[in-house]
TrEMBL record:
It comes from the Eukaryota. The lineage of its organism: Eukaryota, Fungi, Dikarya, Ascomycota, Taphrinomycotina. Residues 231-243, 307-318 have a biased composition (Polar residues). One of its GO terms (molecular function) is DNA binding. This is [Histone H3]-trimethyl-L-lysine(4) demethylase. The keyword Zinc applies. Residues 333-382 form the PHD-type domain. SMART domains: ARID, BRIGHT, JmjC, JmjN, PHD. Residues 50-91 form the JmjN domain. Residues 215-225, 293-306 have a biased composition (Basic and acidic residues). Residues 470-617 form the JmjC domain.
């Protein structure tokens, strides 16, 4: 399953592969972890340990039969670890002098689904008021503290909405849930203020969304979306990379000083179409911020799409293409998208897609042409697609140097200046989840994910290049394991990257892979060539439905706009939250020269403690 990234064509891989650099010194990395296995009696977050298996030499000769023999027990955990017999150590075979693929930039807290849902909601809420002629300069406050409008919205929703909350007098409950004082006049004032804030900020947006959802056109689009989702397994989305739409510009719109007089009316004037276009051009060129905002609205080309996936895309998007072609015709003919009549001076032009509408044809009517840029419903609501930005290109040695320096500096700040030691696995794990859930600071790391082994080598020797090396034909060599006699994948006559052809992963401290299960509910086998610990979390397949339900309930806005969110490998949620909701979660720590197996339909996620190189199919 592929990661979401925004790939650039400025430095194509066939050019990068010709550049030679200093090779990686293998003596500087852990190649064969031989410490006795010590199960942890207690892990961070209350997660229990998944089992580790030690096959005998005889059992180890037949990989898939051995995995089959432990499947009944292993599926109860979703993941397990296999430690090869002593002495098994395949030859490492990668030209580490050759530059690798571009790595992915990861802002850790952006992966946390609840945080991303909060920012997405606030961003759209601010745009809504701005589009209506009002501008939210800053968040409202109670007792000199800003009100979390997203939490307020969720609290009201959980009580049946605004009108139900008023009818049943639930505002005191809502106020307490948001953490305001429960005593005396101050609490009474807080209740009144919170209700007023909701009326002023959230309620108009609620009404707008309700109109959009109940519009006949939107209901038809929803039906099509549901049919497409059910009709196909979404193979394209699982093997390609999602695109990231504009980053939330909420922080750019928020002032540092918070005040209650936060909504200001923006003047509206009548304009003809040419003036609207001129205004849009002027606004676009005024500041770098506006340029960046427009750039972020542009969807990027996907990293890779094979011929089969391309055909599936063309087939499944027939209705969308027809609709888009109609919109293009309407745009060229200067007619209203909704009523199909000629656009006139009472028309408004979408700043993003350029489609025209009469102001009286909109779900919410405008009395005048907005002075500021205006977005149609389709562009305004968007899809909340999210992916990781393309990072730098490194050789293994270059990445090792950067990653080691990052970890050293990061934990040096956390430890006492008098006594500094290398952080333990527990310390790194605890710090990782703190960073994931830190809404104030975005710590960025890089990850080499989904690197094609056909281009860069798999790390295992091959019969073509190393015919005399016994490990070239070893049954646990992941180049040949997918095509072994016991594997159904041998019947596939074409290479499928990540399934019949393994992928490489190069990690640094805190780089992560988000919750997902494998394409077509297959097994996955992951081998660590070298490096520091890689922590895995697994959920048994029997809890998969409950996990999906919890994810949707926790961040409904993200799933509403992007139903295939879990196919994209871009969303994290703490195992502690899942355990609280009744989902069973287990963990395992993988080291050099060890295998991790995930079972069909088992969701899994994890992160790296430092520099590591893994191979997975």
């Amino acid at each position: 399953m592929g990661y979401g990234s925004l790939k650039s064509d400025q430095n194509p891989s066939y050019l990068r592969r010709k550049i030679k650099t200093e090779p990686l010194d293998l003596s500087t990395v852990e190649m064969n972890y031989e410490e006795p296995e010590k199960p942890k009696s207690q892990r961070p977050l209350g997660v229990q340990q998944a089992p580790t298996y030690f096959p005998t030499d005889e059992e180890f000769r037949q990989p898939l039969k051995y995995i089959e023999s432990i499947t009944a027990e292993g599926r109860k955990y979703g993941i397990i670890k296999i430690i090869p017999p002593r002495g098994w150590r395949p030859t490492f075979s990668i030209d580490s002098e050759v530059l690798g693929d571009s790595f992915l930039d990861m802002a850790l807290n952006s992966m946390e689904g609840r945080f991303r849902a909060n920012l997405t909601y606030l961003d759209q809420l601010f745009k809504f008021h701005k589009q209506k002629g009002s501008f939210i300069k800053s968040l409202p406050q109670i007792d000199k503290h800003p009100v979390d409008l997203y939490r307020l919205k969720r609290a009201v929703e959980s009580r049946g909405g605004y009108h139900k909350a008023c009818e049943k007098r639930r505002w005191e409950e809502i106020c307490r849930e948001l953490g305001y004082s429960q005593a005396g006049k101050c609490f009474s004032n807080a209740v009144t203020s919170l209700k007023t804030i909701y009326q002023k900020y959230n309620l108009p947006y609620d009404i707008y969304l309700e109109k959009i959802k109940n519009s006949p056109k939107n209901q038809k689009d929803d039906d099509k979306k549901r049919l497409k989702t059910k009709a196909s397994p979404n193979v394209l989305n699982k093997t390609s990379t999602p695109c990231k739409t504009e980053k939330n510009d909420l922080l750019d719109d928020l002032d540092n000083e918070i005040n209650n007089n936060s909504i200001k009316r923006e003047p509206c004037i009548d304009k003809n179409e040419e003036e609207i276009i001129d205004d849009n051009k002027m606004l676009y060129n005024v500041t770098n911020k506006e340029k960046l905002s427009e750039k972020r609205n542009t969807r990027h080309v996907q990293k890779e799409t094979n011929k089969i996936a391309t055909n599936n895309l063309k087939s499944s998007n027939t209705d969308t293409e027809d609709m888009d072609s109609t919109s293009i015709k309407n745009k060229s003919k200067k007619i209203c998208e909704k009523c199909r009549k000629e656009a006139d001076s009472s028309s408004v032009l979408c700043y993003s897609c350029g489609i025209r509408y009469h102001i009286y044809c909109l779900e919410y009517s405008l009395t005048n042409i907005p002075k500021r840029e205006w977005y149609c419903n389709k562009c305004f609501l968007g899809t909340s697609d999210f992916g990781f930005e393309d990072g730098n290109t490194y050789s293994l040695k270059q990445f090792q140097e950067k990653a080691n320096l990052f970890k050293k500096k990061y934990f040096a700040k956390k430890q006492s200046t008098k006594k500094q030691s290398y952080p333990s696995e527990t310390e790194v794990e605890e710090e990782f989840w703190k960073l994931i859930e830190n809404t104030n600071v975005a710590t960025e790391v890089e990850y080499g994910a989904d690197i094609h082994s056909t281009t860069h080598g798999s790390g295992f020797p091959t019969l073509e290049k190393n015919p005399l090396d016994s490990y070239s034909s070893d049954p646990w060599n992941l180049n040949i394991l997918p095509l072994s006699p016991d594997s159904l994948l041998r019947h596939i006559k074409t290479n499928i990257s990540g399934m019949t052809t393994p992928w490489l992963y190069v990690g640094m401290c805190f780089s992560a892979f988000c919750w997902h299960n494998e394409d077509h509910y297959t097994y996955s086998i992951n081998y660590q060539h070298f490096g520091e610990t890689k922590t895995w979390y697994g959920i048994p397949d029997s809890d998969a439905d409950l996990f999906e339900q919890i994810m949707e309930n926790t961040m409904p806005e993200l799933f509403e706009q992007q139903p295939d969110l879990l196919f994209q490998l871009v969303t994290m949620i703490s195992p502690a939250k899942l355990l609280d909701e009744g989902v069973r979660v287990y963990a395992i720590d993988q080291h050099a020269n060890q295998f991790v197996v995930t079972f069909p339909q088992a969701y899994h996620a994890g992160f790296n403690h430092g520099v590591s190189l893994n191979l997975k199919y």
